[in-house]
Task: structure prediction
Amino acid sequence: MNRLLAGKKALILGVADKHSIAWGIAQAMHDQGASLAFTYQEEPKGRLERNVRKLVATLGNPEDFLLFPCDVTDDSTIDALFRVIRSEWKGLDTLVHCIAFADRDDLNKPFSQISRAGYKLAMEVSAYSLNVLARAAAPLMDERGGGSIIALTYNAVEKAVPGYNAMAAAKAALEVGVRYLAVELGLSKIRVNAISAGPVRTLSASAVKGLSALRRWTEEVSPLRENVTLADVGNTAVYLASDLSRMVTGNVIYVDSGTHVLAAQVGAVEHRQQ
Ligand SMILES: NC(=O)c1ccc[n+]([C@@H]2O[C@H](COP(=O)([O-])OP(=O)(O)OC[C@H]3O[C@@H](n4cnc5c(N)ncnc54)[C@H](O)[C@@H]3O)[C@@H](O)[C@H]2O)c1
Result:
């Protein structure tokens, strides 16, 4: 069978466990023949590393995959990551950015009460990291005559979604980054797009109050009346990584059961009843 990503090398950042959107994307890309590298966030108990190692082993021989620690707030880990990618792979075709963080406190406070430090942290981890990673990936993509950078966003940008607060501001900045990087890197045939996914139950999403209401609402009123799965997001990422999307850049592609076309998002009243 012809596989869409045969011969492509993809670096996936942001697998925390089997519920991670990054894991859905990894599985879809693996099915389509991509070679994969993963990163994990180091923490004292090494739980995330163990999770990623276990998951990677389900795809095949662990030796066929690259695995590195990376914290996007620490330039030295990013430098080390791309040094190894260069020495192992020589080039890179796809970078998948599935990284976001905001303090739970800053998600749950009213928008006007977000702390200065919390706002900065959400911006740095969830938005500025795309700049840093794109800057490091671009020379490696150049080696391959171009590439595809894919980021994950959520539509709390055009519409206010109660409970998203600091992360909404970060996603707005991330989407701006997608457009500016698309313009800049387009000259090197590097495409930059974001997937705006509907609400999915993941570790990070558990910090967002009202996720259940958003998922219920998606089932009840979205055009497709169904919540999106990891595979739905993964398949769109495959398209964006593949040559099928050769002329597609600077976009936010909604994989959200059509929710974004509706006039109203989940109501504040419904959210208050959580
Ligand atoms: N779950 C949803 O409903 C939803 C919807 C739309 C978009 N998204 C986006 O999808 C992406 C993936 O999130 P997810 O929902 O799969 O949750 P997740 O918790 O599985 O993934 C988030 C990842 O970010 C990583 N991360 C956080 N801080 C980091 C740092 N400083 N350095 C390196 N990595 C760091 C975590 O280790 C984790 O692997 C995020 O950008 C998220 O905003 C999620």
Q: What stands out?
A: Residues 14-16, 20-22, 41, 48, 70-73, 98-101, 125, 152-154, 197, 199-200, 202-205 surround nicotinamide-adenine-dinucleotide (CB under 6 Å). The chain has one domain: 9-272. The radius of gyration is 18 Å. The longest helix spans residues 116-142.
